[in-house]
């Protein structure tokens, strides 16, 4: 008769640091693949200045990788230090997302870089709270002495049981986490016209409110002049530099109307302008759905021929490059 106790792991809680190590590696790789999104997330989350410098932003993914290695490879005091540092890190993430829920504008998380983009919600809070709980368990496991790898070598944590848990974690991420990366796009119309690699779709006739409270639609706006639409918000820190550039861009891009697009109503935004070119107010978030705009700042160019001429692009750096490319195309670059 077989030994039932021999078939049961004697230290199942040691799976907590393994799961956290997977999460940290996925998070780090996602951040390394989308560094600009991470920097903008720091600004939008209003991370205190001492903790939001460029050095900290660049180092964060590598810190996560180091912690992941420490959680599974280190034992004793170094392993405990790695577990405590992981607990502190995930607690800080939790505090940031809880605070962000109270902001007047939605905030893009960028917690996993390009792997799981999306606005912060209560679900984000629940996820981060669960990770904090796992980190607390990992601290308890680390104080017991041996590292996870040592426990596997000693047979305290059978490799096949560990492999099954890792497979479950990866499968859950692929099924649940990966689905949030889907982004709605503009549907092609009968007027689609291909020019090089950019397919120009007809500008959708989305209703939009002007800064003076009157309404129009995007297609009507572009019947006379091209329109550069800058999707920004009052509370988006990474939008400030873009907004400051608007007067210069209006002077530079003479034949193009440069307009701010806001999700807030005219009476609810300090960026509202009733002077031409007036601000646009997308209170129903129709631009979000039609163009796949998930965060601010973003930009899109509408041609005067009724077709999309460029974009959308998202992120502070990409918006600046987009405008410079328009200036080059118009022959007015400086």
Q: Which segments are poorly predicted (pLDDT under 50) over 5 or more consecutive residues?
A: 1-10, 178-195
Give me the side-by-side strand order of the main sheet: 4-3-7-6-5-8-9
Largest sheet: 7 strands, mixed
Average pLDDT, rounded to a whole number, is 78
Number of domains: 2
Helix share bin = 40-55%
**Structural classification:** alpha+beta
Count helical runs: 11
The counted number of beta strands is 9
- Overall, the morphology is elongated
Strand content: 5-15%
- Series of H and E elements: HHHHHHHEEEEHEHEEHEEH
Please tell me how large the radius of gyration is.
25 Å
Q: End-to-end span in angstroms?
A: 84 Å
Pfam families: MauE
InterPro entries: Methylamine_util_MauE (IPR009908), Thioredoxin-like_sf (IPR036249)
Membrane topology: Multi-pass membrane protein
Keywords: Membrane, Transmembrane, Transmembrane helix
What this model shows, in words?
- The chain is an alpha+beta fold.
- It has 2 domains: 4-181, no CATH class; 193-330, Glutaredoxin, CATH 3.40.30.
- Helices cover 47% and strands 12% of the residues.
- The chain is built from 11 helices and 9 strands.
- The chain has helices spanning 15-33, 35-44, 54-73, 76-100, 122-142, 148-153, 159-177, 218-221, 240-252, 286-291, 316-330, and strands spanning 193-195, 198-200, 207-210, 215-217, 226-231, 256-262, 280-281, 298-302, 308-314.
- The strands form 2 sheets. Strands 4-3-7-6-5-8-9 form a 7-stranded mixed beta sheet. The protein has a two-stranded antiparallel ribbon with strand order 1-2.
- α1 runs antiparallel to α3, α1 packs across α5 and α3 (54-73) crosses α4.
- The protein is elongated.
- The N and C termini lie far apart (84 Å).
- The model is unreliable at 1-10 and 178-195 (pLDDT under 50).
